[in-house]
Amino acid sequence: METVSELGFWQRMAGTQGLILLFFTSAGCHSCRIWRRLLADYEATREDLQVWEVDAGIDMGITQEFGVYHLPALFLFRDGRYQRPLQVEARAHALHRLLADVAHLPPEEMP
Predict the structure, then answer these.
(1) Per residue in 40-77, pLDDT tens?
(2) How far apart are CA 62 and CA 24, in angstroms?
(3) Pairing of strands 49-55, 2-3
(4) Distance between CA atoms of residues 6 and 9, nearest Å
(5) Environment class of residue 20 by beta-carbon count within 10 Å: exposed (0-12), middle (13-18) or buried (19+)?
(6) Of 18, 56, 61, 62, most Cβ neighbours within 10 A?
């Protein structure tokens, strides 16, 4: 899992191939700690997936741009294009099933 900031985010995203899970988190968020472990383990099982973590308390501009009100928050990108927000229980099999269901769908508009 890689921590990213809003500086140069869109340029970097535009040049990235494959699936990216953008994970908004905060230092004091208990659910975020659970998700961080789950996503790190899950990312290690997938060669076609990267997880990028954004600290919502530090990078407030991009957090507001995505309309994040509750943490943790997950957004899916494919080949640098926004796909959709993800809402799923914090279980690897549920995440895997959801990604299989939505990864092939056409991109959506940004929030």
Answers:
(1) 999 999 999 999 999 999 999 999 999 999 999 999 99
(2) 10
(3) parallel
(4) 5
(5) buried
(6) 56
Could you give the angle at the alpha carbon of 12 between the alpha carbons of 95 and 60, nearest 5°? 75
| Residues ≥6 apart with Cβ < 8 Å to 5 | 54, 58, 59, 62
Quote the CA–CA distance of 111 and 67 in Å, as a whole number: 7
For the chain, domains (ranges, CATH) are 2-102 (3.40.30.10)
Identify residue 56 by its one-letter amino acid code. Answer: A
108: CB partners within 8 A, 6+ apart: 82, 83, 84
Query: Distance between CA 31 and CA 18 in Å, rounded?
Result: 26
List the structure tokens of 69: 């009100």
